[in-house]
Write a structure and sequence with these properties.
This protein has helices at residues 39-72, 81-111, 116-128, 130-155, 162-165, 169-191, 197-217. By secondary structure, the protein is mainly alpha-helical. Residues 1-18 have low confidence and may be disordered.
Length: 218
């Protein structure tokens, strides 16, 4: 039987250059995929989180592109900070909710009637991908920061108060969470290095071989 692999200290695995949170800090990562706990929760959280970020990115395009198109069409309009912040928060909020809904349907359709081992295998691979874990962790932290910022500003602050943006508090908070998620993803891309592909392949291959050996002995 192959020796178990410690994915935290494997010499061939390159961790991100900057410190960042890891999903494995919340969910335990089993040595073998068949032993992975909380498989459905891990996969669901990952997919819905990616849906929120992807939808927010798409939702940012209309308010950001409007000044560019106005300039190209030679119909420049004065950019009012109030209207711009309002459109940005509103558009990202709508986009993030749409992304979550689409990914929820997509994951349901993809995993419908799948065996439990397939849930465990996918969640195990998510936790084994340290770069993906770092992206999820950074995105989540920035998302929480955006949520708390807009929640405080809409309640007592002035810079993002309802009188400034013209938005209801709920949409401001969702928009802040969506923008924070996008900022966390950008931060991850700017501060981390990609993993060693050969090391990743070797680690995963050794883990699969160990799983096969364990299955054959039983």
């Amino acid at each position: 039987m192959a020796e178990p692999i410690d994915f935290q200290t494997h010499p061939k695995w390159e961790r991100p250059s900057a410190w960042c949170p890891d999903m494995a800090m919340i969910f335990p990562h089993a040595i073998y995929a068949e032993d992975q706990p909380y498989a459905r929760t891990i996969l669901t959280v990952h997919c819905l989180h990616r849906g929120l970020t992807s939808g927010a990115i798409l939702g940012m395009f209309p308010p950001l592109a409007r000044p560019v198109f106005n300039t190209i069409l030679r119909h420049p309009a004065p950019v009012h900070h109030t209207s711009f912040v309002s459109r940005l928060l509103s558009s990202t909020a709508v986009g993030s909710v749409g992304g979550i809904i689409l990914l929820a349907f997509g994951m349901t359709a993809r995993m419908w009637n799948r065996q439990e081992i397939e849930w465990k295998d996918r969640s195990w691979r998510i936790l084994a991908n340290k770069t993906q874990n770092a992206e999820d962790g950074n995105s989540f932290i920035f998302m929480m920061a955006g949520t708390l910022t807009c929640a405080f500003a809409s309640g007592r602050g002035r810079f993002l108060a309802k009188e400034f943006t013209g938005l209801p508090r709920s949409r401001m908070i969702v928009g802040g969470a969506a923008l924070g998620s996008v900022m966390g993803t950008i931060y991850h891309l700017l501060t981390t290095t990609p993993p060693n592909e050969e090391g990743v392949k070797e680690t995963v291959t050794a883990g699969v071989e160990g799983l096969k050996s364990s299955s054959s002995t039983t």
